[in-house]
Amino acid sequence: GYQPCDPQIICNRVNHVQTCLEELEELAAKRRKELEDSRQLWTFFQEMEEAEAWIREKEKILAAKSCGRDLSSVVTLTNKHKTMLGELGNRRALLHQTMKKGEKILAKKSFSSVGIQEKMREVCLRWKKLEEVTGLHQQRLEDAMNFFQFSAETDDLVAWLQDTYRIVSSDDFGHDDYSSQALLRKHRAVVDEVEKHRGAVMALRQQLALLAPDHRQGVDVQIRVVEVEQLYGEVAEVAVLRTQWLQDALAVYRMFSEVHACEVWVDEKEQWLERMEVPEELDEVEVVQHRFESLDQEMNSVMGRILDVNQVVQQLVEGGHPSSDEVRSCQDHLNSRYGAEVDL
């Protein structure tokens, strides 16, 4: 009783299976696409969560960071902040890529856009705030750096002025002409250095005005600037006085040397005059007369030197030199010796 199957039935069955297979492939492809979209969505949310966690971590770090207590600590914190800026740049690039992923997800319209847009807006706002806080902290570090550099330079200037004051206020004026000249040369070099530092002292107030308000308005730093200006004024004043004192000391030693030379000449001439006898021969009288003529010329020359000594003494006495009495006594002695020589 076998009867062959109708070919049409077989064709229908084959077509049905083929149609079912195609529908299955479509469903599989659709499912794959949905799964891929879902994976992209959750990858997006995961990356956004990681970005938020990173932002929160940096916010805590920035909130706890100080600006340092001295120049060394500020330099260390600044270097760490530069490292953080590098991390911020890398994280910014990653966040930009994640935002692009979110925009692509929104463009597909496979999921509700409310949660995605809210997350993107929230993270963008937190990121913007983080960059603002980072910028503010960087500005505070720069302000602290400028302040501590200013303080360090001021301290160095004060230390130099204190050392210089000890030098220019020395009571060593030498013990003779040579040592006084050496001291005067050294002192003039110091005076040149003092003058070179005038610009640095005068610039302190300008530098102070460039500091951040919190730093420049401090009472201590303003007092410090005034102290430096006063100290510089004292150093400059004492330096001028020491210049005069050294010049006076040099003048005294030169005067003593000149007096000594004149007295030696007077002693020699006195001894010659005391030993001289009136010659009996005409030729010898002419020799003696010639020597007296030479003596007149020498006395005129010595007289000029003595006048110079008297002028120096007058200047020293009028200037209130501490050795005025000794200088005056030396002057009187020389004048009396020369007067006696003239009488002879």
TrEMBL record:
Keyword DNA repair listed: no
Question: What Pfam families does the annotation carry?
Answer: Spectrin
Keywords, sorted A to Z? Actin-binding, Repeat
Gene3D superfamilies xref list: 1.20.58.60
Q: Which GO terms describe its molecular function?
A: actin binding
Official protein name in the record: SPTN4 protein
Q: Which organism is it from?
A: Tychaedon coryphoeus (Karoo scrub-robin)
Annotated gene: Sptbn4
